[in-house]
Specification:
Blueprint lengths: L11 H28 L7 H34 L2
Helix pairs in contact: 1-2
Amino acid sequence: MPTVGQPTDQSLPTDLALQLDRATNLADLARGDLSRAMHALPANSSLWLHVDIVRAIGHLRAAAVLVDKIADQLDTAEVVNR
């Protein structure tokens, strides 16, 4: 009998899928927040500040793509193992 807080074999794929989906969504939300923040920067802000925000947005996009890829691979493995 599992203890409270420990996933059972049946709940693990669903819980993991939800966690991965949440991580992807949070990265997408952060990208949107950074995009809006960039447009709200003062006109006299450093060019390098803009460069860093653009780079951060790119890294978040890459992270979301990778997490989505992980979810797809786990989904495929689950179908194969059925």
